[in-house]
Amino acid sequence: MYEGVRVNSRHTLPIPFGWYGVAFTSELQAGEVKPLKYFDQDLVLFRTEDGVAHVLEAFCPHLGAHLGYGGVVKGDAIACPFHAWEFNGEGHVKNIPYAKQIPPKVAGFACTMVAAFWRACG
Ligand code: FES
Protein backbone atom coordinates (compact mmCIF):
# COMPACT_ATOMS: atom_id res chain seq x y z
CA MET A 1 0.00 0.00 0.00
CA TYR A 2 2.66 2.54 1.11
CA GLU A 3 5.72 0.76 -0.15
CA GLY A 4 8.90 1.87 1.53
CA VAL A 5 7.08 4.00 4.10
CA ARG A 6 7.10 2.91 7.71
CA VAL A 7 3.69 2.69 9.31
CA ASN A 8 2.65 2.41 12.92
CA SER A 9 1.73 -1.16 13.84
CA ARG A 10 -1.59 0.04 15.28
CA HIS A 11 -2.57 2.10 12.25
CA THR A 12 -2.53 1.40 8.56
CA LEU A 13 -1.66 4.94 7.49
CA PRO A 14 1.88 6.35 7.58
CA ILE A 15 2.79 8.76 10.36
CA PRO A 16 2.78 12.27 8.85
CA PHE A 17 6.11 14.11 8.77
CA GLY A 18 6.32 16.82 11.38
CA TRP A 19 7.27 17.84 14.90
CA TYR A 20 5.82 15.89 17.79
CA GLY A 21 6.09 16.55 21.49
CA VAL A 22 7.42 13.46 23.24
CA ALA A 23 7.78 14.78 26.79
CA PHE A 24 7.28 17.85 28.93
CA THR A 25 10.49 19.59 29.90
CA SER A 26 9.56 19.25 33.58
CA GLU A 27 9.57 15.46 33.21
CA LEU A 28 13.31 15.27 32.59
CA GLN A 29 15.96 16.56 34.96
CA ALA A 30 19.62 17.06 34.05
CA GLY A 31 21.35 13.69 33.98
CA GLU A 32 18.12 11.73 33.60
CA VAL A 33 17.56 9.00 30.99
CA LYS A 34 14.18 7.63 29.89
CA PRO A 35 13.15 5.00 27.38
CA LEU A 36 10.43 6.09 24.94
CA LYS A 37 8.42 4.47 22.22
CA TYR A 38 7.11 6.78 19.51
CA PHE A 39 6.63 6.42 15.76
CA ASP A 40 6.69 2.65 16.31
CA GLN A 41 10.36 2.95 17.31
CA ASP A 42 12.29 2.49 20.52
CA LEU A 43 13.95 5.75 21.50
CA VAL A 44 15.96 7.13 24.38
CA LEU A 45 15.40 10.57 25.87
CA PHE A 46 18.16 12.09 27.99
CA ARG A 47 19.16 15.46 29.37
CA THR A 48 22.86 16.28 29.48
CA GLU A 49 24.49 17.72 32.57
CA ASP A 50 24.40 21.16 30.94
CA GLY A 51 20.63 20.83 30.56
CA VAL A 52 20.10 20.05 26.87
CA ALA A 53 17.51 17.37 26.05
CA HIS A 54 18.12 14.87 23.24
CA VAL A 55 16.26 11.98 21.65
CA LEU A 56 18.12 9.19 19.86
CA GLU A 57 17.31 5.77 18.54
CA ALA A 58 17.45 3.48 21.55
CA PHE A 59 19.72 0.72 20.32
CA CYS A 60 23.47 1.16 20.55
CA PRO A 61 25.13 0.82 17.12
CA HIS A 62 27.93 -1.25 18.71
CA LEU A 63 26.10 -4.40 19.84
CA GLY A 64 22.54 -3.24 20.29
CA ALA A 65 22.06 -2.48 23.99
CA HIS A 66 19.02 -0.34 24.79
CA LEU A 67 20.40 3.01 25.94
CA GLY A 68 17.15 3.79 27.78
CA TYR A 69 17.69 0.97 30.27
CA GLY A 70 20.94 1.49 32.15
CA GLY A 71 22.33 4.25 29.97
CA VAL A 72 24.09 6.94 32.01
CA VAL A 73 24.58 10.63 31.21
CA LYS A 74 28.23 11.67 31.30
CA GLY A 75 28.71 15.36 30.65
CA ASP A 76 27.15 16.07 27.26
CA ALA A 77 26.82 12.42 26.27
CA ILE A 78 25.01 9.20 27.11
CA ALA A 79 27.05 6.10 27.95
CA CYS A 80 25.88 2.67 26.86
CA PRO A 81 25.19 0.20 29.70
CA PHE A 82 27.11 -2.64 27.98
CA HIS A 83 30.58 -1.38 27.06
CA ALA A 84 30.24 2.30 28.03
CA TRP A 85 30.67 3.80 24.58
CA GLU A 86 29.57 7.41 24.83
CA PHE A 87 27.34 9.13 22.26
CA ASN A 88 26.80 12.84 21.99
CA GLY A 89 23.39 14.43 21.48
CA GLU A 90 23.68 13.95 17.74
CA GLY A 91 24.26 10.24 18.24
CA HIS A 92 27.93 10.18 17.24
CA VAL A 93 30.53 8.18 19.14
CA LYS A 94 32.28 10.63 21.43
CA ASN A 95 34.38 8.30 23.56
CA ILE A 96 35.26 4.63 23.94
CA PRO A 97 36.63 4.35 27.48
CA TYR A 98 39.04 1.48 26.83
CA ALA A 99 40.39 2.89 23.55
CA LYS A 100 43.10 5.53 23.25
CA GLN A 101 41.36 6.95 20.21
CA ILE A 102 38.14 6.31 18.35
CA PRO A 103 38.94 3.98 15.44
CA PRO A 104 38.13 5.64 12.11
CA LYS A 105 35.91 2.68 11.28
CA VAL A 106 33.48 3.60 14.07
CA ALA A 107 34.00 7.35 14.14
CA GLY A 108 31.00 7.70 11.89
CA PHE A 109 28.79 5.37 13.94
CA ALA A 110 25.70 7.16 15.04
CA CYS A 111 22.43 6.51 16.71
CA THR A 112 20.25 8.40 14.29
CA MET A 113 18.94 11.59 15.80
CA VAL A 114 15.19 11.59 15.81
CA ALA A 115 14.54 14.59 18.08
CA ALA A 116 10.86 15.18 17.98
CA PHE A 117 10.75 15.50 14.22
CA TRP A 118 9.33 12.49 12.47
CA ARG A 119 10.26 11.71 8.90
CA ALA A 120 9.65 8.25 7.60
CA CYS A 121 12.65 6.63 5.96
CA GLY A 122 12.09 4.23 3.13
S1 FES B 1 26.60 -2.42 23.07
FE1 FES B 1 26.78 -0.33 23.46
S2 FES B 1 28.88 -0.02 23.76
FE2 FES B 1 28.71 -2.11 23.29
Descriptive overview:
- The structure is a single chain.
- The chain has 122 residues and is mainly β.
- The protein has a single domain, classed as Rieske [2Fe-2S] iron-sulphur domain (Rieske Iron-sulfur Protein, 3-layer Sandwich).
- The chain contains one helix and nine strands; from the N terminus they run ββββββββαβ.
- The chain has one helix spanning 104-107; strands at 18-19, 33-38, 41-47, 53-57, 72-74, 77-79, 86-88, 93-95, 117-118.
- The strands form three sheets. The protein has a four-stranded antiparallel beta sheet, with no helix packed on it. The protein has a three-stranded antiparallel beta sheet with strand order 2-3-4, with no helix packed on it. The protein has a two-stranded antiparallel ribbon with strand order 1-9.
- 20% of the residues are buried.
- The mean pLDDT is 84.
- FE2/S2 (inorganic) cluster binds next to loops.
- The site of FE2/S2 (inorganic) cluster has 9 residues, from loops.
Overall domain count = 1
Give the overall shape: globular
Question: So how many helices?
Answer: 1
Poorly predicted regions: none
Q: Could you name the CATH topology? A: Rieske Iron-sulfur Protein
| Structural class by sheet pairing and helices | mainly beta
The number of strands is: 9
What bound compounds does this protein have?
Answer: FE2/S2 (inorganic) cluster
What value does the Rg take, in angstroms?
A: 15 Å
Straight-line distance between termini: 13 Å
- Please state the average pLDDT score: 84
Helix content: under 10%
Strand order of the largest sheet: 5-6-7-8
Instruction: Provide the β-strand percentage band.
Output: 25-35%
Major sheet, described briefly? Answer: 4 strands, antiparallel
What's the architecture, going by CATH?
3-layer Sandwich
CATH class: Mainly Beta
Name the CATH homologous superfamily.
Rieske [2Fe-2S] iron-sulphur domain
Instruction: Give the SSE string.
Output: EEEEEEEEHE
